[in-house]
Design goal:
Layout (H helix, E strand, L loop, with lengths): L10 E4 L4 E3 L2 H4 L27 E6 L5 E4 H7 L2 E9 L5 H7 L13 E10 H8 L7 E6 L4 E5 H4 L5 E6 L2 E2 L9 E3 L12 E7 L6 H4 L3 E2 L15 E2 L6 E6 L9 E10 L6 E7 L7 E2 L1 E2 L9 E9 L2 E11 L9 H4 L11 E7 L11
Parallel strand pairs: 3-12
Antiparallel strand pairs: 1-2, 3-4, 5-6, 6-9, 7-8, 7-12, 9-10, 9-11, 13-14, 15-16, 16-20, 17-18, 17-21, 19-20, 21-22
């Protein structure tokens, strides 16, 4: 077992803060991602908090400010479970950096995304108990390491947003925000604040640096420093995305029937409707088989088997959502100075080998 209980083959981009993603083969194996495989994105050291001493403050534009222990939260509010996919806004950044340099950012591959079964209390129930005032427009979160952000009240009062203390049927581990975190399905992972200690209802979005001056999408010709000045688009709702996980570059499959597979995920309020796969760089397309989602906030895993001859093939996948939106074609079309929101077609180039001597990812 590797750092923080992760698989030995986990790709660790940084040890402190701990930033790591699974290898594609590991991520591709499960509808619900095991804890030892789930990606980890952090901006500070993992917080090791005493669950018994934990307290959550709910304040701001509420009639009755609350201070809740973990036990009190569990006893006072109905327990809910939501299967939801979380995706880092920098997922697939390495593909953008290959097109044009992006210094100072974690070079995420296609696996800074995972799906878990989260257990906790609906944020809506906690806000109702506090008496959310009508002038509140946003709900802000603050973690123990000073990381924060906010979401609009309309999302905060939706039933899927959780104050989660459980993950895949077990207590939420520290590496994933235990003892308590927010889970905001359909939004970028940065809004699912870990090690939660405060929930504040307020008129305007959070002024925490990780919302006001980071996680902002700048134009391609902008200076990256402009994000720190509050320029660009503040990221919130996740964008439609898909990736090829199998086969992997560097693992040439044997010629013959080759299984292609990966994931697709849509943003808030949208569903994945279709995944197309091409084996000739996008000239011709076939529809992949979509697996049943584990819930309305979970990714769709897709598969397709195509017979390939010996030689080089370019495997490309693109997703459509139920509004008929489709991923853009090229990474050059979505490149930005911070490397956020790479939603371009996912492409893997492989060389199929004869006589069954190749290697590929597992099932």
């Amino acid at each position: 077992m590797g750092l923080w209980g992760k698989r030995d083959d986990t790709v660790v981009h940084e040890e402190r803060p701990f930033n790591a993603e699974p290898v594609p083969d590991a991520l591709d194996r499960h509808d619900v991602t095991p804890v030892d495989t789930f990606f980890s994105r952090n901006h500070a050291d993992i917080q090791q908090l005493d669950p018994d001493a934990f307290r959550l403050d709910v304040d701001g534009l509420v009639e009755r400010p609350l201070r809740l222990s973990l036990a009190g939260l569990r006893e006072r509010f109905a327990v809910r479970t939501v299967v939801a996919t979380l995706q880092c806004a920098g997922n697939r950044r390495a593909e953008l950096a290959a097109a044009r340099d992006i210094p100072g950012q974690v070079p995420w591959g296609p696996c800074a995304v995972s799906t878990a079964e989260w257990t906790g209390a609906a944020l809506a129930d906690v806000l109702a108990a506090a008496g959310l005032r009508p002038e509140a427009g946003h709900v802000a979160f603050l973690g123990a390491e000073a990381f924060g952000g906010s979401i609009p009240v309309a999302k905060a009062t939706a039933r899927e947003v959780l104050l989660a203390w459980g993950m895949n049927g077990a207590p939420l581990p520290p590496v994933h925000g235990g003892p308590l975190r927010v889970v905001v399905p359909g939004y970028i992972g940065a809004r699912s604040v870990k090690w939660l200690r405060r929930v504040t209802a307020q008129e305007r979005p959070s002024d925490n640096r990780f919302q006001a001056r980071d996680y902002r999408l700048l134009p391609a010709d902008a200076d990256p420093a402009e994000a720190a000045q509050g320029h660009g688009l503040s990221l919130g709702v996740a964008a439609l995305n898909a990736a090829v996980l199998c086969p992997q570059e560097g693992l040439p499959p044997p010629a013959g029937p080759v299984r292609f597979s990966g994931y697709a995920a849509a943003g808030d309020g949208r569903a994945v409707a279709r995944v197309d796969v091409s084996v000739d760089g996008g000239r011709h397309w076939r529809q992949a088989d979509l697996g049943e989602p584990a819930g309305p906030w979970a990714w769709r895993r897709w598969r397709l088997t195509v017979r390939l001859p010996p030689g080089t093939a370019e495997i490309t996948a693109r997703a459509w959502d139920d509004s008929a939106a489709v991923q853009p074609e090229r990474v050059e079309h979505v490149w930005n100075p911070s490397g956020y929101m790479n939603t371009a077609w996912s492409t893997v180039r492989v060389t199929c080998v004869e006589n069954g001597d190749g290697r590929s990812c597992g099932g």
